[in-house]
Design brief:
By secondary structure, the protein is of the alpha/beta class. The protein is built from 8 helices and 17 strands. Strands 12-15-14-13-16-17 form a 6-stranded antiparallel barrel.
Length: 379
Amino acid sequence: MSAKQKIVVGLSGGVDSSVAALLLKQQGYDVVGLFMKNWEDDDSDEHCSSRQDLIDAVSVADTIGIDIEQVNFSAEYKERVFSEFLSEYKAGRTPNPDVLCNAEIKFKAFLDHALAMGAERIATGHYAQVRERDGLFELLRADDGSKDQSYFLYRLNQAQLSRTVFPLGHLNKTTVRDIARKAGLATHDKKDSTGICFIGERPFREFLNRYIPANPGDICMIDGTTVGRHNGLMFYTLGQRQGLGIGGTRSGDGDAWYVAEKDLVNNRLIVVQGHDHARLFTDHLTAVNLSWVSGRTPHTGWVYGAKTRYRQKDAPCVIAAATRLSCAVEFAEPQWAVTPGQSVVVYESNVCLGGGIIESATLTDAAAEAIRLRQQSCP
């Protein structure tokens, strides 16, 4: 690769993007930092740290010796990400804004802006890797499995992936912080950001209530017995244990309660007792809004690995039925708390193939029939 190549790095004011920029600068690239401001509503020091993040990003750019620009994508974020975020909650699902934010802002609006600046590629501080093979670009897991972020990047397309560099893909977090400390970067010991993508940490219920009116209702057992009251179905997710406001049983003993279902029609939160209750498990799901970052659709009937949440291990599965718009995934073993609105992401070894949004932990009639026929054909 040419040492003169211009790469624009998304400098967030955190240690990961800081080290990404530093490494590219040390490798001889023409590096420019870009700080993205993507949220303006109630942007105060109490909950949103964008002002301090900008100060830190500028400090890092000065230490490294690169130029930095600021760009405001607040309108794009609100239209492409936050509106979908609210729509999903209104529909009773639990969205993952990081997935959509990456596809629409960090690797679309940001990429378009960087190309307009004359950049050939962009870089971020994500823990992932890119490899070109047989004319296609593959999204690979990071070497540090505990920090791998490929799950959040599965909605990128080939054009985006071909223009992206992940300088931290072969490093672990301890090494990254050590590099930052030795280079005198102000972010070397800065706490990792959490909370909603670009919005930051804040009381979640209070925040969501500003945009969606709460609709309290009953918390019920499977048999319909009422055991408490919920504050609004949007505040809960399948598998949730904390914050239900009910004890073990009505007498205060027994196993903990877990959210097993959202009854949207009757505005009821259905709960069960015990982490291993059968109602918390399913061995299949239907996914929609499919996106295959690998540039190819997985084969039906082949065994792959898949995650239905970020931190879980790969679960063996097959794509049992697929169309252009949806697919059915059948797992070898039942999966816990498969949650509509979250993403199922499919892997072949360390290659992320892509995935989709979980629509339900049930199958369409067509998918169920496809599974039945496949099982009949198996010896």
